Write a sequence for this structure.
């Protein structure tokens, strides 16, 4: 699908913002405090005692090297989605490291290990999440799971978790168990923020299924009072083998108590199932009805 100029510009801004957040988290929190974490920053921290190179240089070399591997194995489509991050990330990381070393007081980012772990992991997660929103990749340690997945078809989330776990274990060999456990916390915070960032702009909503003999009255009341659309699903009772219309409606969280009271008032014996809906698109959610 070809993107419009507006969509392309939006995606470029998301990728740029993501790389800024990712670079800031690594340069200002992870590297100054030797925080073990997932991805290339974790590898650089783990290896800096063994390899006489700065962590920033190791990350930049790794980013470019893995990009070349990805292009050779995964092809042009991967390259198009990843090249901007491959350019931006090393540049931004070097810039933020330079600012920290030359224009910011030396001890500004030297802090409690757990604070650095939480805030560094959060910034990294926000950055990666911004890039993932566009369907692109941040490159780096995203690439080995993609390559392995191509040949083994092991699910990507499983491979990412394995790669991050191996990174933390590598750090445990050089920094000890406590540092490794702290690294696991960083990976968890980062994963949490990735998920939250990817849901920005969505609506926290509830998908409600209602089974009642008074479904028609309940449906009319929902249309009238909540101004939400409904769907009737024809189902068959497993025990009775009778036709049972199921009423489905999606409401925003604040409307749920009113819906529950409404259903209970009409039919106190109605069977109601409430499920989380992490993202909803359509009339009344992602766009409003034109008047």
């Amino acid at each position: 699908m070809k993107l419009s100029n507006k969509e392309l510009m939006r995606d470029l801004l998301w990728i740029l913002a993501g790389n800024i957040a990712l670079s800031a988290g690594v340069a200002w929190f992870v590297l100054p405090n030797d925080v073990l974490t997932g991805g290339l920053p974790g590898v650089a921290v783990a290896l800096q005692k063994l390899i006489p190179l700065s962590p920033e240089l190791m990350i930049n070399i790794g980013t470019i090297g893995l990009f070349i591997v990805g292009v050779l194995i995964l092809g042009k489509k991967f390259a198009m989605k990843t090249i901007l991050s491959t350019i931006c990330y090393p540049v931004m990381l070097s810039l933020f490291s330079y600012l920290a070393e030359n224009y910011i007081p030396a001890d500004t980012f030297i802090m409690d290990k757990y604070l650095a772990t939480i805030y560094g992991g959060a910034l990294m997660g926000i950055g990666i999440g911004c890039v993932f929103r566009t369907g692109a990749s941040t490159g780096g340690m995203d690439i080995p799971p993609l390559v392995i997945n191509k040949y083994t078809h092991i699910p990507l989330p499983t491979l990412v978790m394995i790669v991050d776990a191996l990174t933390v274990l590598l750090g445990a060999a050089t920094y000890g168990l406590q540092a490794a456990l702290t690294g696991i916390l960083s990976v968890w915070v980062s994963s949490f923020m990735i998920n939250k960032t990817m849901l920005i702009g969505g609506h926290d909503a509830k998908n409600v299924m209602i089974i009642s003999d008074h479904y028609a009255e309940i449906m009319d009341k929902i249309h009238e009072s909540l101004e939400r659309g409904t769907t009737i699903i024809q189902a068959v009772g497993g025990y009775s083998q009778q036709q049972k219309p199921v009423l489905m409606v999606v409401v925003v969280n604040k409307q749920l108590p009113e819906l529950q009271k409404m259903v209970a008032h009409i039919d106190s014996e109605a069977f109601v199932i409430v499920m989380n809906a992490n993202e909803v698109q359509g009339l009344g959610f992602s766009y409003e009805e034109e008047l």
Residues 76-102 form the longest helix (27 residues). The radius of gyration is 25 Å. The first strand starts at residue 205 and ends at 211. The beta strands are 205-211, 230-236, 243-252, 271-277.
